[in-house]
Structure formats: structure tokens, C-alpha cells
Design a protein that fits this description.
about 280 residues; alpha/beta; Trna Endonuclease, Chain: A, domain 1; 12 helices; about 55% helix
Length: about 280
């Protein structure tokens, strides 16, 4: 599951979190619906939209973009999507664009083309690591901070959030949804943890057996395993290249095996296979 999907799930389940980021009272959520919308001309979709559901032309609609990877083309894409959306739907509300970054280092500004645009009051850029102490003490903001929390402290913050939710969220259904979301974020951030470990973390008497939770768990586990496999394959390629380089420099197979702490037979096999591959290419 991608980071932006986590944020969009949060905004879908708890829209007041988004408005807390902007310093807007929570009751604003009653006037908005979080949704996505297709842009037919270019076959793409705006995934983060807060659209007013009341007839008030003064209320803005919000386009939300979550960006956790550096992208030099981001603002080209965002402004293109914005103006195509305006042309196609001609919404009866003013627009606001909100971009959420983990930090300033992730942002790739383009002052040549967008400096004046980015200074407009219609555009808000949020850097999660710069939120003030009073802001980060609130339950909604702490939930977003959990997504960027270092792995070694994420578990403690999640447990703290669960305890805070027990005292601050009186609605049982909302509180359970909040805890479920915490578990989902922990599964995303710490894919090496088992269901049992996550259940113990939140003092759950039973494991989550919902289809949604199982799908998220399996998806993240698959991504984690695929990433581990790619890393292992990359390391094998690097080792293979280094072995061949050392062999070509005249080192004996036994010496190379000692350097890499590998069996001599395995090193000999790698060298033989590489020589065969080179012969086949020639």
C-alpha cells in the first residue's frame, strides 16, 4: 500500500483530520464529502477531492495531493490537472490546492514557472515534520505524524494514540474504526511484524479477521517480501560482479572464496557460469 493511499484512507474515514491540518474547525466536515473524480479527456483521476455538499458558493473545494517522493514534474502535473478539471466540470466553488510533504527536502520547486502560483493564498503546502508542538499534540495530527514516524518509535506512538483515542473519542464505532486504522498504518510501516505481534501491541483479545484487514496485511507482506527479494537479487549481482573482477585480476578461487566467506565450489560455479554467459554473447 502506498503512502498516499494511507492518507486518503484517513481522510475518507476521518475527514476532520484534513481540516485540522488547515486549522479549520471539525464541524466543517459536515459540509464536505471526500471523493475522487475522473478526468475523462486525459484518462486520469483526482484521488483526493473534498467537495462541498451544501449550496454555498463561498465554500472552496479542495484538491489534496500527498507527495512522499521527490518529483520534479509534480507541479506541472498538478496545475495541468487543476485547470483541466476546472474546464471540464466548471464547479460552482472556488478552488484550493493542498500539497502534503513529509519535509521540505522532498519538495521540488520550480521557481521559473510556478513561483507566483505557489505564493497564492489558494495553495497550501504542509510539511509534516514542521508542525508545531500544540498541533502535534492533537489526535488528528498525531495520526498523520505516525505515518512518518521512525520505525523504532512508531509502535510506541501507535499505542499512545490508541490510549488517547480511548479517552477522547466517545463514539464506540468511531473509536474502533480509529484503532483499525492505527493497525493498518502499523502493518504498512512494520511489515515484518506478525498479526500476533500487532494484536499484542494494542492489547487485542482476538486477531483482526475482517477481509479488509487481511487484504491489507497480505498486500503489505507481499510488498515487503518482493522488496526483500529485489534487494537479495541486487546483492547477488553485486557479489557476482566483484567475484569476476577479482578473478580477472588474477586472484585464485580460494582467495576470492575467503574474501566473500563463500564455499570454494560456489565461487567456482559463479565464475564458470559467467564465463559461459560471456561466451554465449560472443
Amino acid at each position: 500500500m502506498k503512502t498516499d493511499s494511507i492518507f486518503y484512507n484517513i481522510f475518507q474515514e476521518f475527514p476532520f483530520v484534513f481540516f485540522a491540518l488547515l486549522g479549520i474547525p471539525a464541524d466543517a466536515t459536515d459540509r464536505y464529502q471526500f471523493t475522487s473524480q475522473e478526468i475523462k479527456q486525459l484518462a486520469f483521476r483526482l484521488d483526493g477531492l473534498f467537495l462541498p455538499i451544501v449550496e454555498d458558493s463561498q465554500l472552496p473545494f479542495y484538491i489534496v495531493e500527498v507527495q512522499f517522493q521527490p518529483d520534479p514534474n509534480l507541479y506541472y502535473r498538478l496545475f495541468a490537472e487543476l485547470f483541466i478539471y476546472l474546464k471540464q466540470y466548471q464547479p460552482p466553488h472556488p478552488w484550493q490546492l493542498v500539497v502534503i510533504y513529509p519535509n521540505r527536502q522532498t519538495e521540488r520547486e520550480n521557481s521559473l514557472h510556478f513561483q507566483e502560483m505557489l505564493e497564492l493564498p489558494k495553495i497550501t503546502r504542509i510539511y509534516l515534520n514542521e508542525l508545531s508542538t500544540p498541533e502535534t499534540g492533537s489526535l488528528p495530527i498525531k495520526l498523520l505524524k505516525l505515518v512518518i514516524e521512525p520505525e523504532n518509535t512508531a509502535s510506541d506512538l501507535a499505542v499512545d494514540l490508541a490510549r488517547q483515542a480511548q479517552t477522547e473519542i466517545s463514539d464506540i464505532a468511531v473509536r474502533e474504526s480509529f484503532i483499525n486504522l492505527l493497525e493498518t498504518i502499523i502493518v504498512y510501516k512494520l511489515p515484518q511484524k506478525s498479526r500476533e505481534e500487532i494484536a499484542a501491541m494494542f492489547n487485542l483479545s482476538d486477531l483482526k479477521q475482517t477481509r479488509f484487514y487481511q487484504e491489507i496485511f497480505e498486500e503489505v507482506q507481499a510488498e515487503f517480501q518482493a522488496q526483500a527479494q529485489l534487494q537479495a537479487e541486487a546483492k547477488q549481482r553485486e557479489t557476482k560482479v566483484a567475484i569476476l573482477r577479482m578473478f580477472n585480476l588474477g586472484l585464485a578461487t580460494e582467495q576470492i572464496a575467503t574474501v566473500f566467506d563463500l564455499p570454494v565450489a560456489e565461487v567456482a560455479t559463479i565464475i564458470a557460469q559467467s564465463q559461459q554467459e560471456q561466451a554465449d554473447q560472443n
